[in-house]
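Example complex used in Figure S2.
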Amino acid sequence: MDDVASRGMVLLGCGRMGSAMLKGWLDGGLNPRAVTVITPNPSDWLRETGVHVNAPLPADPAIVLLAVKPQKMDEALPQLKSLGNGNTVFLSVAAGITLARYEEILGAQTPIVRAMPNTPSAIGRGITGIVGNGHATQAHMDLAQSLLEAVGQVVRVADETQLRALTAISGCGPAYVFHLIETMAKAGEGAGLAPDVALQLARATVAGAGALAETASEDPAQLRINVTSPGGVTAEALRVLMDEETGFPPLLERAVAAAIKRDKELSA
Ligand SMILES: NC(=O)C1=CN([C@@H]2O[C@H](COP(=O)(O)OP(=O)(O)OC[C@H]3O[C@@H](n4cnc5c(N)ncnc54)[C@H](OP(=O)(O)O)[C@@H]3O)[C@@H](O)[C@H]2O)C=CC1
Ligand SMILES: O=C(O)[C@@H]1CCC=N1
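Predicted assembly (268 residues):
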């Protein structure tokens, strides 16, 4: 992090993901004057942080975070080409865009790390997968990891195929869980609960079960069994949800396959 403080950091794009990560770093003590953000419509929050916004680039920043939408990368990235082929590590959170594509735009000698975070990063509870290209040294990977650890856990994956699978699980995963909350609340309403009570129950249940799954010594399967009294109520619900033809297992498999298919399309 001393390197980032002295050489600087650049953020390309500062929407949901970029600002969640920047907030984590600033909260962790990063000097805002070490940060230059390039983004077309800076938010009030961003302007008030004290970072340089749409200012000239530092000559040799330690790191550049790429946090624009994948569809915008071809248009936005070439302006940073002068920082390629050097000792600036490019850390991208964009889904789908491959290390090879970054090398094409920035130069084949550029150190590049692809990362896939998720939105709980905004509260320091994210999980991010990373993979580097051939020019990302151990020191570059360590720098990327320590920056990402400011917003949650980090796992290193072996290659980009693994990152694609990770994207479909933990990158997109918060959306699956939020939809579970929505649908539980809806089902509660359907069963006669007031909408606000149904939502309160669904939200607290998912949050509480998540915290229990994270801290308990038992695995999730055992935690499920702990809820399921023999011959009781949960068993009947699980008979529906765990059905091998129509329950969660085939449904989630289809959802993950659809996410992977789209990730492949974005990298084509
Ligand atoms: N949201 C998520 O859960 C996750 C997202 N990601 C990845 O993070 C990346 C960003 O996603 P997210 O933060 O959700 O998207 P957002 O749209 O919130 O953020 C993208 C930002 O990039 C800005 N931008 C657009 N064009 C340019 C440009 N030419 N130069 C600089 N900045 C530009 C946008 O500005 P404006 O809005 O004004 O156009 C916006 O502020 C994506 O690549 C996505 O794949 C990864 C993991 C999880
Ligand atoms: O939906 C997307 O494409 C991004 C990647 C993972 C989460 N959001």
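The CA atoms of residues 13 and 39 lie 5 Å apart. The chain has two domains: 2-158, 173-267.
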